[in-house]
Backbone:
């Protein structure tokens, strides 16, 4: 190309369409708009996430500010004026007079944060190990994937409890409540990386034999560069699907651990903690303390799951 | 001096089952000789075509030439440098920059997540070169528009993608391009366009091609010399005219007779006998002897050496 | 002419998409008579396979037959679904696809697959069916049929597997075979064997064959008549010798010219400029006009004439010259 005269007025400066514009015009958005289930669950998830993020602004009370609590408000029924103070609470109050609606908003915050952080942690770990296993192969692959297999033979919740227990044993008592959330994230994340690793390894095995990867090797690109710049962007679709479904599972796992009393502490209650507290009042007639957090958890997990299901179908090239 | 000199090139693949299966099933290790003792030279600014059916080892030779595979025995020398054995990294790098490859599948050889501009410029970018305006210039050189640089591969047809692959191969200003079945995935009318383009570029830029194909008729236009492979062995080498008008090896004769011809309406010639043998257990002596109409005892016992025969080279005991 | 085995009349296949309705097969009519091999040729996306799939009821939704009729042995089949369609496939129509691996069940012995097919379509006992299966394998040239009947598909080579597929397609003695790129995945020498086999079997039994391929050479060797498709439309139809030596449609002419065989001894290959348009971006008038070297004003506006009478070219200005074919 030494003999190609470069004319100065070649109109090269054409603006490329941005990736966002291309994405909005894609079949993906088109199928999304035509799927009522996807749209509804997406809207529900967005509302819940926003509600959780802006909980301090939305919640009528701060349930964790002892100064604002009035024990007289305890056991208010939903939508009925309290028999002593006359205050009305939409979803009632618990034994200590905390507004259930507000505790749910704050609880959702913890639940979503723990779920998302755990999935992010699992994702980074799983993608890294899966990419390395798939691309490098040999003994590296054997060690990573057999570790994954062994871990899969234990139920995830058991693994999480084990990690949680060990972590609790080695953290000093005074930090235990502060550390609880982070330990929870690591415990759930470590129990969840396996599926990311497996899927990424499988996709990597397919991609690494494609000719564009050979072309990059030929040029002299290093293995890390090929993994990051060539293979990673092409294995992300299945990861996105798993991440969504994992988010639902992680939220439930967190709720389960908290329900069992090994998760979020009562000072920072998640939806699971709220359900654990609420179930103590079920048989004494104060059903709302249990029901509303439980319904919230169910709605959140179901919406995320439905979204994940739709995403799996939409991103599956065989179904299109 | 020849640009490429291939001497006694051999490649053996270990196709054994995993260790545990071998022990349980009491099997020996299995080896597949994909390329066996192949020697030929490619002159500078010429087109050498390698032709053979599946299992002939033609792609394996191409991969060894560009350095994607290491030879088991023998050597590939490019301008006197043996890529697999040369210790001087600078010399290896200099030679590597002179070799490029065009692949068979235009859909797998471009990274679907990259813009065409980045794909084409990658060979230069990987070496830290200046890529400004490079892709646009190359796109016009291969008959596409500079405006196409901002698009993604899925917006192009098969023939256009193959042009993009050619542009990428040209980016680093190579001397030698290995073309592995560059047109076999394309439609006939597009194949003609791509072959003509490659032919023009060769003339304009003084390129050297190693052109790998399963189709004898495709290579006759573009090549200066043709090597016919059977089961990893070079059986005949000649100029295209010589090969077509006067094939000397019985296998070449069979290939030419079996290829469908446009004028042969309702042709009822007896089809060739037999199939390509299992490359793990190739026949003794001349690999073609079980299918050869001329076969004698010596063909079973002794592998024929390449010998000169009226301007061509042929590895056959019987050919005259 | 007696009733043709397969008769396609004004067949249109439509795929509704968000960008509008695509017509991968647009108003196509042709017949195949007893013992005749019709080559259907075209480049990828021309609609040749889609037409074959329409005949055997294997269109994958949302693709569907929008207009037209398909008759097999005088029976109308384009509206059949479910069981009646399944009975028709196999009994009346046999299929041979490009990839022999996907047409065979990898978990069943080939003998069982053959016997099941025979039992499903013919009124014979199991022992007779097995005998027939062995005979069928023998006919397609599989050595040692009696022993090999207990083998699994993976134990055969590619060429042998395609022979098994042909045996499977023929074992219920259908009157029509649809062979979709039957030799594309095979080596040249094996391709020649398979084509010879298909030709022999069909001549002997009087089976009609729809041979779908992109390879003009295969068409020349095997077909009696040829149908050329372009962008969903039938552009030329006629006896193979006439169409290949004196093509009347400029597309056929260009296609013939660009095969490397035809330009032997020339420095450059003849080429048709451009590429086949995508179905969602068809030009106005004749779909071929932007690539046509003989384009006239009329071609840009008026849709090309539709071929209905069985031979000829769908062109406003058909060629009359002798093509330079070897």
Residues:
């Amino acid at each position: 190309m030494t003999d190609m005269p470069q004319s100065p007025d070649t109109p090269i400066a054409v603006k490329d369409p941005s990736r966002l514009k291309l994405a909005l015009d894609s079949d993906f958005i088109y199928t999304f708009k035509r799927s009522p289930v996807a749209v509804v669950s997406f809207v529900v998830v967005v509302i819940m996430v926003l509600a959780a993020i802006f909980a301090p602004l939305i919640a009528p009370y701060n349930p964790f500010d002892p100064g604002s609590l009035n024990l007289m408000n305890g056991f208010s029924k939903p939508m009925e004026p309290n028999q002593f103070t006359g205050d009305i609470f939409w979803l009632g109050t618990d034994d200590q007079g905390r507004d259930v609606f507000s505790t749910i908003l704050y609880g959702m915050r913890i639940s979503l944060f723990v779920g998302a952080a755990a999935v992010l942690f699992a994702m980074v770990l799983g993608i890294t190990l899966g990419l390395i296993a798939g691309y490098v192969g040999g003994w590296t692959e054997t060690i990573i994937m057999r570790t994954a297999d062994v871990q899969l033979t234990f139920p995830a919740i058991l693994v999480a409890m084990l990690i949680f227990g060990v972590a609790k044993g080695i953290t000093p008592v005074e930090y235990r409540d502060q550390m609880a959330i982070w330990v929870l994230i690591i415990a759930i994340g470590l129990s969840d990386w396996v599926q990311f690793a497996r899927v990424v390894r499988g996709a990597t095995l397919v991609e690494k034999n494609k000719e564009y990867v050979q072309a990059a090797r030929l040029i002299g690109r290093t293995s890390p560069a090929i993994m990051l710049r060539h293979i990673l962007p092409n294995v992300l679709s299945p990861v996105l699907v798993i991440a969504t479904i994992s988010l639902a599972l992680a939220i439930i796992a967190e709720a389960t651990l908290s329900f069992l009393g090994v998760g979020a502490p009562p000072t920072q209650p998640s939806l699971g903690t709220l359900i654990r507290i609420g179930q103590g009042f079920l048989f004494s007639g104060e059903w709302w303390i249990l029901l509303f957090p439980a319904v919230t958890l169910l709605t959140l997990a179901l919406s995320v799951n439905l979204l994940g299901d739709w995403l799996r179908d939409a991103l599956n090239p065989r179904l299109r | 001096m020849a640009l490429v000199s291939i001497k006694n090139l051999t490649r053996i693949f270990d196709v054994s089952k995993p260790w545990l299966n071998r022990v349980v099933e009491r099997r020996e290790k299995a080896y597949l000789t994909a390329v066996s003792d192949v020697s030929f030279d490619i002159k500078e600014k010429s087109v050498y075509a390698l032709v053979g059916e599946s299992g002939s080892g033609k792609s394996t030779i191409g991969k060894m030439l560009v350095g994607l595979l290491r030879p088991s025995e023998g050597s590939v020398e490019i301008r006197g440098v043996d890529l697999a054995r040369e210790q001087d990294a600078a010399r290896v790098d200099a030679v590597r920059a002179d070799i490029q490859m065009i692949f068979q599948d235009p859909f797998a050889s471009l990274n679907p997540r990259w813009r065409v501009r980045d794909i084409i410029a990658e060979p230069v970018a990987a070496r830290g070169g200046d890529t400004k305006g490079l892709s646009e210039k190359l796109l016009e050189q291969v008959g596409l528009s500079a405006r196409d640089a901002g698009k993604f591969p899925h917006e192009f047809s098969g023939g256009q993608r193959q042009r993009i692959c050619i542009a990428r191969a040209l980016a680093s200003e190579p001397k030698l391009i290995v073309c592995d079945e560059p047109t076999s995935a394309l439609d006939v009318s597009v194949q003609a366009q791509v072959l003509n383009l490659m032919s023009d570029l060769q003339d304009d830029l003084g390129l050297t091609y190693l052109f790998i194909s399963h189709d004898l008729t495709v290579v006759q236009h573009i090549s200066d010399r043709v090597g016919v492979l059977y089961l990893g062995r070079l059986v005949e080498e000649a100029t295209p005219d010589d090969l077509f008008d006067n094939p000397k090896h019985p296998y070449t004769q069979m290939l030419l007779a079996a290829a469908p011809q446009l004028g042969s309406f309702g042709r009822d010639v007896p089809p060739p006998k037999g199939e390509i043998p299992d490359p793990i257990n190739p026949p003794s002596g001349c690999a073609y002897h079980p299918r050869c109409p001329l076969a004698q005892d010596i063909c079973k016992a002794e592998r024929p050496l390449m010998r000169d025969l009226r301007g061509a080279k042929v590895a056959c005991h019987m050919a005259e | 002419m007696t009733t043709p085995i397969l008769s396609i009349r004004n067949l249109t296949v439509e795929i509704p998409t968000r960008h509008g309705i695509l017509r991968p097969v647009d108003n196509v009519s042709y017949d195949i008579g007893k013992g005749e091999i019709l080559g259907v040729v075209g480049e990828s996306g021309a609609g040749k396979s889609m037409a074959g799939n329409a005949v055997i009821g294997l269109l994958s939704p949302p693709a569907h037959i929008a207009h037209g009729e398909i008759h097999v042995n005088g029976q109308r089949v384009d509206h059949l679904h479910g069981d009646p369609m399944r009975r028709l496939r196999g009994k009346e129509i046999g299929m041979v696809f490009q990839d022999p691996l996907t047409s065979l069940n990898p978990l069943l012995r080939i003998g069982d697959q053959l016997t099941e097919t025979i039992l499903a379509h013919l009124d014979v006992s199991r022992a007779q069916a097995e005998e027939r299966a062995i005979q069928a394998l023998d006919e397609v040239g599989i050595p040692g049929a009696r022993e090999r009947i207990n083998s699994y598909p993976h134990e055969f080579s590619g060429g042998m597997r395609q022979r098994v597929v042909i045996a499977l397609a023929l074992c219920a003695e259908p009157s029509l075979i649809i062979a979709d790129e039957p030799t594309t995945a095979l080596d040249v020498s094996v391709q020649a064997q398979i084509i010879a086999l298909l030709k022999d079997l069909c001549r002997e039994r009087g089976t009609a064959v729809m041979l779908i391929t992109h390879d003009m050479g295969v068409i020349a060797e095997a077909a009696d008549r040829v149908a050329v498709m372009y962008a969903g439309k039938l552009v030329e139809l006629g006896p193979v010798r006439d169409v290949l030596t004196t093509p009347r449609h400029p597309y056929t002419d260009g296609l013939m010219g660009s095969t490397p065989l035809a330009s032997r001894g020339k420095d450059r290959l003849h080429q048709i400029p451009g590429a086949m348009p995508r179905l969602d971006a068809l030009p106005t008038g004749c779909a071929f006009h932007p690539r046509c070297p003989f384009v006239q004003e009329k071609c840009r506006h008026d849709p090309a004439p539709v071929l209905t009478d069985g031979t000829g070219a769908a062109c406003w200005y058909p060629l009359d010259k002798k093509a330079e074919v070897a």
